[in-house]
Structure formats: C-alpha cells, structure tokens
Amino acid sequence: MIILGIETATPQVGCALGGDEGTLASFQAAGGRRHAETLAPAIEFVCRHARIRLDEVGAIAVDVGPGLFTGLRVGVATGQALATALKVPMVALSSLDVLVHPERPLGRLVAAVVDARRGEVFWALYRDGGPAVERITPYAVSPPSHLAAELASRGEACLAIGDGARRYAELLAQVSEVEVGPAASAHPSAVALVELALQAARREEFVPPVDLRPLYLRTADVRVNWETRAPGPIGAAPLLDRLAVGRGANAWPHG
Length: 255
What we know:
The protein is of the alpha/beta class. It contains nine helices and eleven strands. Helix 1 packs across helix 2 (69-86).
C-alpha cells in the first residue's frame, strides 16, 4: 500500500509518499502561516518525484494534532478532500507521537513538546515499552512551568524535543536532568508520519474521512465550529482540480 502523509500541525509544512519499500518522496518547508499556499504544490511535487499517480495512493495519513489551529484545519480538510475523491480510508495520528517516532530506541524518558502559543505547550511523555515506544502520560496542554515541574518530580534523565521545548529551553534547562533536543527534532516529520501510518494500516486502524477531526486540547479551539468555518483557499474543488484527482490514469503520467 502507498500512503500519502500530510503534516501541517506546526509552522513546518510537510508531505511524503511511502510504502512497504520505504519513503518514495518527501517535502518539508518552514511555511510559517502559509500552510494553504504551500500544501497543494508540495503534494504535486512529491507525486511527480516519486512517479506516483494519486489514484495509486491507498490511504491518506494526516497529523490531527495537537497543534496550531490554522495548520490543523488545512491538513485535515485537504486530507478529507483527497480521501473522499480517491475513495480511500484515512489514518489519524498525533503530532506528539509523530514527533517522538524518529527518536527510537529512546533509552531514556522523552518529552514531546509542541509550542501551543499563548504561553502554553502541548506535551506528552514517552519511554521504551518493549518492541515499541510507549506513551506514559495523556496528551496535555499547560504552561511550560507545569511541564518543568512534572519532569523535576520524576528526577530522571529526559530528552525534551519539539519547537515547544526549544522555545522554553532556558526554563526546561533549570531541571538538571533535562536535555533539549536539536533543531532537527523541532517539528513532526512527514516521513515519520508515513512510517507510523503504515504500521496503523497493517492493523487496519482506519478512519472514514467524514469522521476525522483535529485533536484539540484547548476549550477555545474546541468551540470553533468546524462546519461553519469550512476552508476557503483549499476548498475541495480548487484543490482537486489542481491535483488532477479524478482524471484517471493520465493524471500523473510516469516518465
């Protein structure tokens, strides 16, 4: 199965194509708030470089958060539009799970920390759990000081990764056992998203496109009515026209 992964939960925009043989093509850019303008050309780019037509894709994987509202809205709406047009299922994955995936084997406690703005962070803690990485706390949103207190109470070596960890590195560094990860680990990777999605697909952990929703942890975000704020610049018709969905085998010719 070939999976298209869409990663827009943070300021970085990414997408990737992969299958059992590994990653076929990937794209990532620090898009800031230009998720809608960047994503469709990025999907076009990975399809052309992988020599894959969209009608060869067997599932769409999307990072559903927690993360920034605008990015999540763009990624989820785009994935739903594509999955509906292609009549394929979706895989929903958390940004925090995707963020920690490249760190395997962990070897120590790992805090995945995404900047939530408004003086808060989204976070969860992970450690090795046999053959897989195990999340040992619920997904949470809090001031970074609460996370620092949680790590201090545990009193064990910890690697803190993500743009939230880097933004509040000085605060977290006051916990003597905490090391803040490098810039390379600041954002969830579309390649890691596809790798996790392939594992979920083998377990048939699919979500119908109509049922997929972002993972919001803040009441202010949850109150936003998803239906009344339908995406404008990436509405289904313009997006599908740009990506040539529904034009059959000639949509993405090989060669």
